[in-house]
Amino acid sequence: MRWMKFFSLLVFLWITSYQAFAAQDISVKVEVDKAFATIGDQINFRVTIQHRSDMMVLEADAGSALSDFEIKKTTDFSTQEKDLISEGKNYVITTYVLGEYVVRPFPIKYKTKDGSVKEVQTNSLYITMESVDKSKDQGSEKDIRGVKGVHKLKNPIFRWFLLLALFGAAASIGTWLYFDRRKQNLEGQPQEPALSAQEEAYLALNQLKNSDLIRKGLVKQYFFQMSEILRRYLERRFRIRALESTTYELMQELTPVASRDQVELIQEVLDFCDLVKFAKYEPPALEVIQETNRAKTVVDQTKEEPEPIATEVKTI
Predict the structure, then answer these.
(1) N or C: which end of the chain has fewer CB within 10 A?
(2) How far is CA 180 from CA 171, 173, 175, 185, 192, in A?
(3) How far is CA 136 from its chain centroid?
(4) 57 is in which domain, residue-wise?
(5) Is residue 298 part of a domain?
(6) For residue 112, how many other CB atoms are within 10 A of its CB?
(7) Is 0.90 topped by the overall pTM?
């Protein structure tokens, strides 16, 4: 029995020493600043790789593992203390969908001193996204009612009459549109000049501000329209894809064509719109007015200024 205990102790010491040696070669750790967050919150996802100075990290991209999240910002970092290098990336991520998420392990490729390429896997992480107002989620099941059954029309004559009425209405509208368009073409009436990008945005924002959406409690619809107005303006002003892009993708498109202050202002306004649209946040009236004014400020600071008209000065 003694020799078995002695043998087990030797195996344990060998495994421990091997792990310690491997840990000295390279160690990888992924972590977040909060595992429980509310919708729209920004989470710092950090990948840290520690290795000796005679080694080189070749690949450490967590993009595929974060496919369920929207990546707002990425930052590289690197420090060295004696022969030990600590480097990696910090991702600012968010999502507007409730649920529990698992960030799966992803590979870190590195080159050793002798030139061989090796790979190590990261650890898994669990993130839970909760609602801003939990009481609303608890009562959400009561708000959703079952779908009622389809009522069949018992009288076939009424059904045929309804189909004929719909067909007649469609034919009448089509005929009216055809002759109206033909009349315009024949008369050759000049069309009004199209509005510029900033004129269209100012007009749409004023109409939105004067609408009754807030009075009716349709706050989410209000900020949905504000986001669409700004995205359409940015698409026309800078000739980029804005309407079909995420906020993160839009910021990447704007970075080469707008100043840093302009990009930060645009992101703040669009992030607030996303918070109201997806996170059940209901801002007070004063905050609605402030964000509407900030949307106009976006247009003020980025609008295309008309070129000055050159005047010829005549000398006598």
Answers:
(1) C
(2) 14, 10, 9, 9, 17
(3) 24
(4) 23-132
(5) yes
(6) 15
(7) no
Q: What is the CATH number of the domain that holds 61?
A: 2.60.40.680
Domain assignment present for 149: no
State which residues of the chain have pLDDT below 70: 1-24, 133-156, 158, 182-193, 307-316
What one-character DSSP code corresponds to residue 7? Answer: H
Name the one residue in this structure whose structure tokens are 């005047």.
311
CA dist 128 to 98, 123, 242, Å? 8, 17, 30
Orientation angle between helical segments 285-302 and 219-238, nearest 10 degrees: 10
Closest CA to 51 of 30, 81, 17: 81
List, in sequence order, the alpha helices (H) in the chain.
2-25, 134-138, 140-143, 156-187, 197-209, 219-238, 247-254, 260-278, 285-302
Amino acid letter, residue 241: R
DSSP 232-273: HHHHHHHTS--TTS-HHHHHHHHTTTS-HHHHHHHHHHHHHH
Give CA separation, 172 vs 25, 161, 168, 179, in Å: 79, 16, 6, 11
Phi, psi (rounded to 5 degrees) for 75: -135, 130
pLDDT of residue 228: 96
Per-residue pLDDT at 144: 45
